[in-house]
Amino acid sequence: MAFKPDITVAAVAQLEDRFLIVEERISGQLVFNQPAGHVEEGETLLEAVVRETREETAWRFTPAHLLGVYHWRHPRTSRSTLRFAFIGTVSDHDAAQPLDRGIVRTHWLTRAELEARESRLRSPLVLRCVEDFLAGRRVPLDTIQHLSLATAAAVRAVSV
Fold first, then answer.
1. Helix (H) or strand (E) holding 13
2. CA atoms of 100 and 51, how far apart (whole Å)
3. Are 63 and 86 in contact (CB under 8 A)?
4. Interior CA angle at 70 toward 69 and 71, to 5°?
5. In this structure, what are the phi and psi dihedrals at residue 53, rounded to the nearest 5 degrees?
6. What's the CA gap between 58 and 91, in Å, rounded?
7. Is residue 1 part of a domain?
8. What are the CA-CA distances from residue 76 to residues 51, 72, 73, 79, 123 (Å)?
9. Which end of the chain is more exposed for a tag (fewer CB within 10 A), N or C?
10. Distance (Å, rounded) from C-alpha 30 to C-alpha 22?
């Protein structure tokens, strides 16, 4: 059987000691998550994290670093997720913008407040990303390459 994980992106934004979090309804339950979602066809990882953050929070997200790449398998459904988490800043909040379907509200929560809600986190990736952020993990954005068929062919032509 082929391994086909869901490819997702997540935004980690901190303001003072608080992190941008969404409260969303999943399968009838309210859970907490970073602004996150699936990468759409033809979209780069960076484009996806900017779009998802705007749709879910009404904030404009500007990525500064890759926090990490996380693989998680849901214990109940066995679905695998490959999450690319990005660190960045938010600006240009549009309070009039409706939030994405399923998003109830946004919050700015501390690590302690997230830990107190651990049973209501969408996945263990939420707290792990915060812990990695606080531990100082940072990877330059230029380590991420998006190659189209044309650019891949050009790279090959130069190296031959």
1. strand 6-15
2. 11
3. yes
4. 130
5. -65, -45
6. 9
7. no
8. 29, 12, 9, 8, 12
9. N
10. 10
Q: What is the pLDDT of residue 4?
A: 87
Give me the pLDDT at residue 117, please. Answer: 97
Domain region containing 15: 6-159
What is residue 2's predicted lDDT score, i.e. its pLDDT?
Answer: 74
For residue 33, which of 54, 67, 4, 56 has the smallest C-alpha distance? 56
**Contact partners, residue 15, CB within 8 Å, separation at least 6:** 90, 108
Judge whether 106 lies within some domain.
Answer: yes
Q: CATH code at 139?
A: 3.90.79.10
Six-digit token pair at 27? 């399968």
17: in domain: yes
User: What was the pLDDT predicted at 35?
Assistant: 98
Q: Is residue 107 part of a domain?
A: yes
Number of domains making up the chain: 1
Low-confidence ranges of the chain (pLDDT < 70): 1, 148-160
- How many H helices and E strands in the chain? 4, 8
pLDDT of residue 77: 84
Q: Residue 155's pLDDT is what?
A: 53
As given in the structure block, the two tokens for residue 69 are: 């790449």
